[in-house]
Amino acid sequence: MSVSTIHRRPTVVFVGGGPRTVGLLERFAANAGELLDDGPVEIHVVDPFPAGGGRIWRREQSRLLWMNSMTSDVTIFTDESVECEGPIRPGPDLATWVAGAGATILERAGIEQPGPMDFPPRLVQAEYLSWVWERVVGDLPATVTTHLERAVELTPDQRVILASGHEIQADLVVLALGYLDRLPTASEIAWANKAAAAGLTYIPPGYTADVDLGGLQPGERVIVRGFGQAFIDLMVLLTEARGGWYDEHDGLLTYHPSGAEPILYVGSRRGVPYHAKLGYTVAGTKPVPTRYLTKAALDALGDGVLDFDSQLQPLIDKELAFAHYQQLFSAHPERTRWEWTLFRDVLDRSLPDAPDFVAAVETAVPDPLDRFVRSDVDRPLHGRFFDDWYTFEQFLTELIENDLLRRANPEYSADLAVFNALLSIYSVLSVAITEGRLSDEDRVRRVETEWHGFFSFVASGPPPRRLEELLALHRAGIVRFAGPDLEVAIDNDHFVARSPAVAGTVQARAFVEARLPRPDVLAATDPLLRGLLADGTLAADELFATDGTSLGGGQLKADAQSRAIRADGSVHPGLFLLGPSVSGSAGSSGFSRPHFNGPGFRQNDAVARNLLTLLVPRVGDSVALPAPRHAPHGTRGTATMEKHRGRSSGTAMHAPEHRYR
C-alpha cells in the first residue's frame, strides 16, 4: 500500500455536526488514551448548523414541537450494557441531565423542566446535545474547529472545500450527514405544475419544521395526506403556533381557536393516526433475542436471496404473536384458560393464521381485546364502509379514545412486549439486508416501506397528549377525518379527496403531503455527495423491481468498518460513512435508550478506534497514512461545478469558525 508523508498535524474532518458526530467524538475521546499516545490532532467539524444538535435538533425551532421519546428513554453516553472494545465512559442520560446539570440551563432558556416520563420539547434535546458537545470537546486530545457552512467538494487528495472557498487538508474524512434533502420526484413536480396552473396551494413531502406553511390561509379547507409524526407537527404549527390554546376540565381538553387556523381534512393509507406512545413501564421487560426469526433460521432456508412474503413475513408474525401471548399468559394469567407451555407448543409447530392456532387462541384467550392478529393491528379500518362522514368520524373518534386508554394501562402490557419484539425483529432484518439476503425490491417495498411503516405505526407514534389534542381539535371543528386509502386529484380549480371507505368527497384549494420524503441518495441535493457519486468516489445502486420499474436510489455503500466503497468496488481507506443514508449504519433510526446496548454505540466505538489507529503512525512530526487513490482523469467536472455553485461569490471570505483549543 502506498503512503504519503504529511508534515503537519494529522487532521480529521467531520462533515455533519449532529448527534452522530457527537457520539463518535465521545468514543474518540474515550479511546484516545489507549491508542493515540500524546500527539496533537486537528479535528474540524463542518455543518451550517451549530455542532451538537445539527439541523434536526437545532435551538432555532418552535418550542411547541416535541420529541416522541420520554425523557428517561434517551442517552448519548455509553453505560455498562454497551458491548464494545473501548472503555465505558458513563454520562447523564437526558432525564438525569434535566434534573442535574441541565436544570439551570433550561431555566435560563425559559424552558420548563420535564419529568422522566414526559415527552419533552425538542429544544430540551437541543440544549442537552449542546451540553454534551461542550463536554466531549473538553475531553478530546485535539484542537477542534467548527465551520458554520456547507462542505461542497472532497478532492482526490483529501482536501475538503467549503462553500466559502476555504479548504481543509484532511488525512481522514467522516461523512455523517444525517437526513438528506432530495430533489422532487417526477410525481411531485407534476403535482406542483398542475397546482400552480390551477392557482392552488400544494406542499410536497418535507421536514415539517422547515416547511413554509404561510400559504395555508385561515379558515380554508386543507386536504392532508399522512397521519404520522409529520402530521402531528403540522397540526401543532397550524393551531397552537398560530395563537390557539387549550384548557382542561375534568380530564377533557378544549381547544380555543385564534381564528388563524385552516380546517384540516386528514387521511392516509390506514386512515388512522399512529398509536400513542406507551405511557407506562413494566419492570424487567426489555427486548430479548428472537425465537423464530433468527439468523440460523434464515440460513436454514437456504443460500441466496430469500422471499420476504413467503419466508420472512410468517416468521415475523410468529415472533410478534409469541411476544404478545407470552406476556399475556405470564403477567395476566387470569385472562387465559390454558397453561402457557401448552399454548406455546401450538405456536411452535404452527403459524399465527393456521387453523389449529386460531382455534387455540379462541379457546385459550376468551376476550378478543387480548388477542393479537397483525393484519388487524396494521389496518384497523380494513373491510369497513361508512355511509356518511358523521358515522365515520364518530367511529374513528372512539377508536382513538380507546387507543389512549389502552396505551396508558399496564393491564395491556402485551402491547409493550410487542413493542420490544419489533426492536429485536428490526435487528435481524438489518443483518439480513447487509448480508444480501433480500432482493432490492423486497428491501425497498417490503422492509423500508411496508415493514417500517408498520413499525412506526405501532412503536413510533406521538405522545398521548398529542392525540388528546387531536380529539380536542376535532371537537372544535379544526380537524376532520378524511378516511383510509385516501386518493387526491385536481378537478378544475380544486383538489378533490375521496376514500373508498366513506361515501362522498372533500374539496379544497390546498393539499399537503404530510410525510418525510423517501430517502434516495441518487436524488440528494447535497453538492458534496453529488460530486462524489459523479466521480465514483462513492457508490450507490439505482434499484429496480423485477418488472424493470425503478425503485429509486439506494443507500451509500460502506464496508463492515464503515469505510466508503467506490463505484469500482474498491474501499476508500480514508473516507468513512455513517448515518441513515448509509448501508449497514447502525443506530440511525433514533437515540438509544439507557441500558439498552445500543448498536449505534457499538459501531461508533469501532469506527473511533479505527480512526485513532490510522492516526498513530508517525515519522517525527509527520503522519503516514494510506494515500487515497485518485479518480480517473476528467471525472471531476460535476463536483467542480457544484463547488462553484456553493460559493457565495468569487471571493474567499470564510464563514464563521470557532476554534476550541
TrEMBL record:
Residues 13-179 form the FAD-dependent urate hydroxylase HpyO/Asp monooxygenase CreE-like FAD/NAD(P)-binding domain. It comes from the Bacteria. Residues 625-661 are annotated as: Disordered. It holds the Pfam family NAD_binding_9. Transmembrane segments: none annotated. This is FAD/NAD(P)-binding protein. It comes from Kribbella yunnanensis.
